Amino acid sequence: MISNQANPALRYIRKVAATEHARTLSDQELLDRFISQREEAAFAALVRRHGPMVLRLCRATLHNEHDAEDAFQATFLVLNRKATSLRPRDSLSGWLFSVAHRTAQKAKVAAARRHAHEMRAVSARVADPGTELTLQEAREILHRELARLPVKFQAPLVLCYLEGLTRDEAARQLGWSPTLLKGRLEQARKRLRERLASLGLALSGALAATLFQETTISAAVPATLLSSTAKAVVASEFAMSPAVSAQAVALAEGVLKAKSLSKLLIAMTVLLLAGVGLGAAVRMTRAAADGEVEKEAAPVADSVHKDSSSAQTPGAQKPMTAMEANNYVQQLRNEASDLWEQKEPSTKDLEKAIKILEGLVTFLEEPQIVDFANGVSWMRSRKSNVYADLAAAHVRLGHKKAALDYLRKLMEDGDGTTVKMLNWWVDVNKMAVLREEQGFKDLVKKYEWEDRLWSGAAFQTPYKENLSDDEKIAGLSLFWSRVKDNFVHFDHVPDLDWDKLYLATLPRVRETKSTLEYYQVLMEMCAQLKDGHTNVYPPKELQHEVYARPPVRTALIEDKVLIVEVRSASLREKGIRPGLEIVKIDGLPTREYAEKRVAPYACSSTKQDLQVRTFTYGLLSGAKDKPVELELSDEKGEKVTKTLARSGYTDVDKGPPQAEFKVLRGNVGYLAVREFENDACLKCMEDNFDKIASTDALIVDVRDNGGGSSGFGYEILAYLTDKHIKLSAQAQRVYRSADQVWREGEQGGGVVWDRQPGTDWYFDKKKLYSKPVVVLTSARTFSAAEDFCVAFDYMKRGKIIGEPTGGSTGQPLGFALPGGGSARVCAKHDSYPDGKEFVGIGIQPQVLIRPTIADVRADKDTVLEGAIDHLLKASPDK
């Protein structure tokens, strides 16, 4: 009989069988088998299952393949050591993410030490932070804050966003119900959003949805790396195994020991105060983090005394970038918060955290860092962040006076922190005990003026039928000043004299006899700015007097105004149907009625946007109790008059879903995305991806998408490419009072712009649709939907088909007006990544197709049919 051990074929068959069986087991079952039997197949299955996520994170942090693989192996070596004590095992993915994040950060420190000569700063010049700061900073902050979430929130985010599982798959792996997973996923997003806000990262729609941005390097784990990792772990002495690098072993040991950094920060502070250059101090502390401070500190200190000018030679050293300084601060803040944010931190841990943070304050006061902060918004927030952390740590030590001192510095720092934000910090960092202190009350009182200055609380008077003249003039003045200081599109209205218009509007405001008339005057004034993201809205008590309309949709098609949709059964019974032309409204010819009653109040950026707002959104709007009389003409020219109520309908059809997918002729997939307000579009894409993948081409229809959060749109695009997604370039106005005088004399003048180039973002969906794609647009494609179209157009993934978009996006600045109304002003200018303009123009389709009257009356979707024909013509076999 032949021994099993001597039979390679039999051993191979058993190994394959064990591997296949391992794939069907849960994480807990695999861990149990590994712990009890040291089964290589079980551990290999865990590496195979979670390795891609770990490797992606390591690559995104380190940007070096060898370093990333070392960190990858170290992560699983730590799992080997901690497997027996790991709880709860059903959240292994989240635990591995945290360990991988910490390991990659330690590897980053080690790499910085090895290449210290590239990190020294030259005080004579400062590196341009460029666009990399935004991308790298956002990625590292997101990863770090995810690693700090409680397991119950961390696990669903890691499974759904990093490991690419569907919600149902994630729920099964965690042993949760789908409802529980959905709830915790939403809570996790909320917590992560709050954590990011606490760090000065104000989330746009785009960033809130794009939780994890990864590198373009493939995340597949090489077979040799997977095998060597599993073999090294199973070996009794992995430190001696040739299958794992010495660097990986050192990293694993470093993570397990979790060395304190407090003494190193003290050393850095002493060195900085002694005149050691910033780069040298950073290099020393990073080298010390790898256990070599004794070896490097003395030589560096000696060299400073021998020749303090050597680090100042222009061109001799590469300057430290703002990104590197910023990341360094955030990394050490993370080390400190791990100490002071514990549920029951010890006095020793709190004192260590305070030493770290105090060292960071010294670091942030270095001239080079101050220069960074003056030019980069990310760095401006860092000292405030550290002050808030210091206050929180002192509260936990019972040092109320010290905590208040740091809150005072937080307010004095001048980075725009308001009393509202101060109170937010107190709530988030659990410092409520300070509210009863007189020092805190005095601090709030001292800075309340800043909140009053920008909140406009005094203008927020209650609604009444006719506001006083003083309230009306105050509201007009507030709107005028907010526009004057923040509006970014005055170049679109070069002939508009905003101050002159203000003066001309003053008497009109005084003449109004009601709050409704007053708001109509403001809306008319606002319309002169010709911008779709700058608007005035009447109080809620008046909206039924302005926005009520019957459940029909109208549109201007081939120079005629048609009914294109009827959403009420009772109206259909009255003979109201698509295809009827509206000849007159309340006795006036339709075009004349629109020009007099609707267009003057429409805030629009383009001709096509104005047409939509005039002939679709606003044409039949008015007071809810006042019916609208329509003279209609059918296909034969026969006319009939119908009176339509603007309210009171109980049979309004349910609207179409926010997103839906179906397969059309020629095996062409059709994904309609009607808004980006929530993740319904992502869920639709995710739930239907297998069906989408089986189609021969895909149409993404955003013709009825009025916007929402841009990030949802970018995540849809992530299914269509394995490359970076280039986002729009941005610009906003910057105002510095003294600079105005120095530049233009006592009268001031000129506009200074803060311009940010387009940012690269990457989503690793693990699911890729690589077949032909087209996007359908119309003038109703607006705001975030246009951000989506810009990114799609710029990535050259396919054609845009249909009509030009509305031509308006940006970040509005909102504020309240007297009587309960409100307004917003577009404060951010967007363009294509290469600077090409589309606001005020519209995104132009490569294939122009417009609806026709004949097709509306035949219930034919001209644009959709044209898109299908375009795709089928591009596929000869179809």
Provide structural commentary.
The chain is built from 37 helices and 20 strands. Helix 17 runs antiparallel to helix 20. It starts with 7 loop residues before the first helix and ends in a 5-residue tail after the last helix. The N terminus is likely disordered. The chain is 52% helix and 10% strand. The protein is an alpha+beta fold and 878 residues long.
Lay out the secondary structure:
Layout: H1 8-22, H2 27-37, H3 40-62, H4 65-82, H5 92-114, H6 132-147, H7 151-162, H8 167-174, H9 178-198, H10 205-209, H11 223-234, H12 246-257, H13 262-273, H14 278-289, H15 293-306, H16 322-340, H17 347-364, H18 367-375, H19 377-380, H20 382-397, H21 400-412, H22 419-428, H23 438-455, H24 469-486, H25 498-511, H26 515-527, E1 535-537, H27 543-546, E2 552-557, E3 560-566, H28 569-573, E4 581-585, E5 588-589, H29 590-598, H30 607-617, E6 628-633, E7 639-644, E8 659-664, E9 668-673, H31 680-687, H32 689-693, E10 697-701, H33 710-718, E11 725-726, E12 729-734, H34 737-744, E13 752-756, E14 760-761, E15 773-777, H35 784-794, E16 799-802, E17 812-816, E18 822-826, E19 829-831, E20 847-848, H36 853-857, H37 862-873
Parallel strand pairs: 9-10, 10-15, 15-16, 16-20
Antiparallel strand pairs: 1-18, 2-3, 4-5, 4-6, 6-7, 8-9, 11-14, 12-13, 12-19, 17-18
Helix pairs in contact: 1-3, 2-3, 3-4, 3-5, 3-11, 4-5, 4-11, 4-12, 5-6, 5-7, 5-12, 5-14, 6-16, 7-8, 7-9, 8-9, 13-14, 13-17, 14-15, 16-17, 16-20, 17-20, 20-21, 21-23, 24-25, 25-26, 33-35
